Every structure is written in structure tokens, then in C-alpha cells.
Amino acid sequence: MRFMELFVVAIKSLSTNKLRSSLTTLGIIIGVGAVIALMSVGQGAQAIVTATFQQMGTNVIFIQPRNPEAPGLAGLSSAFASPSLTLADAKALVDIPSVLSIAPANENFVEVVAGDESVTALIHGTTPAYQEAYAYSLSSGQFISDRNVARRDMVVVMGSKVAEDLFGSDDPIGREVKIRGKRFTVIGVLEPKGGAFLGVGMDDVLITPITTYQSRLFAQRTASGEDAVQSIAVQVSSAEEIDGVMEEIDAILIKRHHIGPDEKSDFSVISQEQVVALLQEVTSVFTIFLGAIAGISLVVGGIGIMNIMLVSVTERTREIGVRKAVGAKRRDILAQFLLEAALLSLVGGGIGIIGGWLVSKGISLINIQGMTINAVVSPDIVILAISVSFFVGLVSGIYPAMRAARLNPIDALHYG
Q: Which of 374, 356, 357, 358 is nearest to 366 (CA)?
């Protein structure tokens, strides 16, 4: 039989049992829709990470405390490491050639109160170099100065969203806010930056002198008793200089921290590019994991197709016998049932693509505390989903099709 004849027969056969065919495709619809929706969320999260770091200053090296005893990523996280960096460490890096700015920083979440309004924000204790290193621009007022740092002034610069939430359309410059029961004067407001990282918006920040942070808000000390610094951002003049500067930073801090040749460092030095690559690797694994979970639905859908095709073979045993008796070959019967299984999976896959795309668009509209994930439905996700659904349909149809093709025409004619 020619392909078009097989196709017409397959359509008629599936149309005869519309409800059964619809329920059979439902598993494929859910599976394909889930794969597209969840993998698009994973790619959206990856895009957010990349965009967020691109909005930061370019050619930046990050230095953080490291737990020498902790393996892998845990060792690189300051949350698992004892304080080991100080302001003196930051100052020791000033004379490295090609270094444009050095911004030590501490951070923590605080409640900020202005009159009857209050918001939760991430406060950064840092120096004036922070503005250049992280590419922030001022909307009004001024940034913290070296004088503010030297005098431990009780001043803050606000992110645009914090200023809007607390003061609305009023000018916050010169107004007072309370942080941990202490009064701070607002001296500047940052331009909106957009983006978020780990659930924290880039505009949900406060910036205060690092000395004020250390002495008035959150005291933290190293093992030697010095005021601790959680991270140091070093901005380099060009990308070509990054590797050389990283080596010099490593050498200077190893000497300052008295780390022996056989000892592991209590700090990590990593470039912005390495951070992005590391986070993209993590989000890629996350995306694949989500896709694998959704893929279980496709397997269940495939089992459903196999089950229905086996029932169909049993119901159409006499039909198969008649076809073989009038000259249909084994390959014709095999192709017939494989085509029906493939049609079920392709129709389900097509509807699933539309459903997954709609769910992805719906997820992109969800705003959680000012953060949205723009789910990215890329062509490769769609191609992967439809290819897998077609493959599942074929695999699920092979056994029923082979069973139908092997039927003895005499036995089939006497069936039932």
C-alpha cells in the first residue's frame, strides 16, 4: 500500500474511536507541554543570570573567603567560610598594574523604616569604588565618599525601588530612615538598573560606608580580630589583563595570609566570566533536571499509546486477516500500525507545544516581589520535545505493529 493510502486508513481508524484517541494523546500532550514549560523556565533563569552579570561592571574579579576544608562549590561560598578578608587586604591590591578600582563590600538584609512605611532591602557596606565596579549611576544626590568612609557617617544611598516604596514620588534626599533602630540620612538615589540575582532585585539595595556597616550595623571579625570583609571586587582595565591580575592578587594574598606551599588558600579569586560560566553550568543542570522530570510524563504517554494499540490489534484481528487474504504484505500491516502510533504522538506533541508555549507565557507574567522569569521557548526545546514525542510514539507502536504483522491470516479470519 502506498503511503497516502496508509495515511487515510490510519486517520479513519483513529477517527472511529475519537474519545479513546483523544485520551491516548492526553499523556503525550501533558508530557510535551511539561517539557517545554519547565525547560523554558530553566533557560529563562539562565538568561536572568547572564543578563544580571552583564549589567554589572565589566572585567571584574571577585575575591571571597574560602573554606580550605570544604570541597567543590561549598568551599567557594562565603556562607560556608570563616571570615578571612580585611580592608587591609583590599588596600594591598591598589598598586597592581591595570587595576582601575577596588571595592570591598559586606552585605546583609535589613528592614528600612521611613515614617509608617517599611521595606526589606539588601544593604551593602562598601567604598566609593563600588559605584564604578558595579556600574551604578546616580539618579539624584551623591554617592558615598572617602570622607564618609573615614568618618563612619550614618548615610545611605538608595536603590530606585527602595526609594519609591518608602517615599513614592517625594524626593528622599536629606530624609531620614531607620535601620536596626539607628537613624541614617539619605544622600543619593541610584538609577533603575533592573534585573535580579538569587531573588534579590538590583534596585532593592542600600549602600552605606563599609566602616559604618562594620561599627554600627553588623560587626564581624576575622580570626586575628580585624574587621572582616565579605568580598572584594577588583575592576581591571581590559579583559586581556584579567589572568595576570588574578595571579598577582593570588600571590599578594597568599603572602599576607601566611599560606604555606602545601596549604590550601582561605580565599578564592574568580573572574566575572568564570562566575557566569559556573552559574550557567548550574542552571543548565537545573534545566536538564526539569526536562527529565517532565519527560516521565512522555514515558507514561508512550505506555498509554502502546496499550491502546494492543487493544486496537485485538479488536481489528479479522480486519488484518482480510487484508492479508487480499494481498496485503507483512510490511504493510507493520507500517499501518506504526503510522497510527506516530500520528497519535505527533498530534499530541503539536497540541502539547501550543499548551507548553501558553504556560510559559503565563509564567513570564508572574511577578514575585518584583522579580519575573521570562521563560524562553527556544526552537531547540520545541524540536527536542516533538522529536522525543515522535520517537516515543514509534517505540510504543513497534510491539503492537509487529504483533499485528505476524498474525496468521487464516487464524485472524476465524477470530471471534
A: 374
